[in-house]
Specification:
alpha+beta; binds phenylalanine; 11 helices; three-stranded antiparallel beta sheet
Length: 347
């Protein structure tokens, strides 16, 4: 073996033993660096004759090509190994089943509200939405419920630590009835000065609040307000309309309505609406589902309308109560506990 063959073998061995790119670069310097073994061989050519230079030069070049090839191969091998390691570390098993989120579902109260909206929309009612934080005027005064009147305690609510323009605490509305006023005012304003005002026909579902908490009362609950005001609207319209609604809601005609005299400051006369199923598990008991009545003339006035000309009725039904009856649930709190064992039954 001549000295150049030995040099190539040494280089191949050194490169092979280099375990990292840094070690490999050091090994390279020992052969191809400024005073590397191959570089020294090239320098030594200077002292040779022309012919010797030619033949020796060719041999050295051949050796250099081999060394460079070995270096290149080792570089590639180290880079491949590095990539392999990295791929292993970041391995993804694409055959693993994905982590799914559970299927969501519409909350039974939201579903019930949507159902109520659809039924009333089919009877020509608009659906309105309004603030849950109300002024004293909309929650009480405009509804003919003056300050210090004992009827206010029927609707003891929560107050917000902020005062309205009249210096009264804002409240969390204890019922959806403020929406009667808000909607009717906007309607009256929109049609002011016209010879004829189309009837007001609206429902306003939403959250309401009272200081109350047991199996059938929650501090936050849901009502749907209904209002129909026109020049020729009477209690019989209320009865027909409410019966049509309740039959559509419960998908049965085997059901009776009863109007039981009651009191609300904003209606006169006032009545509770009770229903009785004539078939099914709830048969034979009167169940209260709504307050109602003919809109009080003072309330008509507060809406910006002339009580000599306009008359109407209103009702306020408990959405949660309707949902409990429809789904056969005895504890209202189940709706609001957020327990998936309960809620997932409504998928
Ligand atoms: N706002 C009344 C309540 O919350 C219900 C009601 C609405 C009564 C409209 C009459 C007319 O009890």
């Amino acid at each position: 073996m001549n000295d150049l063959e030995q040099l190539v073998l040494d280089a191949q061995g050194d490169f092979q033993r280099s375990a990292t790119p840094a070690e490999l670069e050091n090994a390279k310097a020992r052969y191809l660096g400024k005073s590397g073994r191959l570089t020294e061989q090239l320098k030594a050519l200077a002292s040779l004759s022309h012919d010797e230079k030619k033949s020796r030069g060719a041999l050295i070049n051949g050796a250099k090509q081999q060394v460079e090839a070995a270096l290149q191969a080792r570089r590639q091998a180290l880079a491949d190994a590095e990539l392999d390691l990295q791929l292993k570390a970041e391995a993804l098993d694409v055959t693993l089943p994905g982590r799914r989120r559970g299927d969501g579902a519409v909350h039974p109260i939201a579903a019930t509200t949507a159902r109520i909206e659809a039924i009333f929309a089919s009877m020509g009612f608009d659906v309105a939405d309004g603030p849950e934080i109300e002024t004293d005027w909309y929650s009480f005064t405009a509804l003919n419920n003056p300050e210090n009147h004992p009827a206010r305690s029927m609707q003891d609510t929560f107050y917000v630590d902020v005062k309205d323009a009249e210096g009264r605490w804002l409240n969390l509305r204890p019922h959806t009835s403020p929406m009667q006023i808000r909607y009717a005012q906007a309607h009256a304003k929109k049609h002011a000065g016209k010879p004829h005002m189309p009837d007001i026909r609206v429902i306003a579902p939403g959250r309401t609040y009272r200081v109350d908490s047991d199996a059938t009362h929650s501090p936050m609950f849901h009502q749907v307000e209904g209002l129909w005001v026109g020049e020729n609207v009477s209690f019989k319209d209320l009865k027909a309309m409410y019966l049509a609604f309740i039959q559509a809601f419960f998908e049965t005609t085997e059901l009776k309505l009863r109007f039981r005299p009651s009191y609300f400051p904003f209606t006169e006369p006032s009545a509770e609406i009770d229903i009785m199923f004539e078939s099914g598990p709830l048969t034979g008991r009167w169940l209260e589902v709504s307050g109602s009545g003919q809109v009080h003339p003072q309330v008509i006035r507060n809406m910006g309308l002339d009580p000599e000309r306009y008359i109407g009725f209103a009702f306020g039904s408990g959405i949660d109560r309707l949902a409990m009856l429809r789904y056969g649930i005895s504890d209202l709190r189940l709706f609001f506990d957020g327990d998936l064992r309960f809620l997932s039954q409504f998928h």
